[in-house]
Amino acid sequence: MAEGRKAPAFRLPRDGGKEVTLADYAGQKLVLFFYPRADTPGCTREAIDFTRLASAFAAAGTAVLGVSADPLKAQEKFRDKHGLGVPLISDEQHKMLEAYGAWGEKSMYGKTFLGILRTTVLVGADGEVARIWRNVRVDGHADAVLEAARSL
C-alpha cells in the first residue's frame, strides 16, 4: 500500500454489532487509525484524542474508524469505559491490518514478534490513500491528522 493508490477494500465487524466496509465511506474522506491493543495507555490516549476531535473531523467531511485485532467484546468494553465516540473495528484475522501495512514485526525487551504497528491512513474522497503515518507517536497525532484532512 502506498500514497496515491486505491485504498484496499475491507468488510469487518464493528462495535455495536454492525459490519463496516470501505464502500460505506465512498465519496467522503476517511481516517483509519490502527492501534495495538484496546485499553492500554497509548491506545487509550489516541482513541480519546480522535473522539475529542470527532466533530471537527465531521465538519471537515471526514469519518474516523479505529482498528485493532481485539475481539468485539474487548472493543465494546474499551468504548464504554472511556466514552469513545468513534467506531471501533475488529480485525482478528489481520487481513485489513496486513493490507494497510499495519501488521508486522515488532520487538520489545529483546524479543521479536508480529503485531500491530501503530499506523494511521487518510483516505481521500476519491478512495485513494492520501497520507500514511507510520510508527505514530500519540501526542498531537490526532490534531496533525485533522489538519491533513482539512487540507484535502
TrEMBL record:
Pfam families assigned: AhpC-TSA (PF00578)
Reactions this protein catalyses: a hydroperoxide + [thioredoxin]-dithiol = an alcohol + [thioredoxin]-disulfide + H2O
Cellular component GO terms, alphabetical: cytoplasm
The keyword Oxidoreductase is assigned to this record: yes
Transmembrane segments: none
Transmembrane in keyword set: no
GO BP terms: cell redox homeostasis; cellular response to oxidative stress
Alphabetized GO MF terms: thioredoxin peroxidase activity
Domain Thioredoxin: 1-152
Source species, domain of life: Bacteria
EC number per UniProt: 1.11.1.24
Biological role stated in the UniProt entry: Thiol-specific peroxidase that catalyzes the reduction of hydrogen peroxide and organic hydroperoxides to water and alcohols, respectively. Plays a role in cell protection against oxidative stress by detoxifying peroxides and as sensor of hydrogen peroxide-mediated signaling events.
Subunit comment: Monomer.
Name of protein: thioredoxin-dependent peroxiredoxin
Biological source species: Bradyrhizobium nanningense
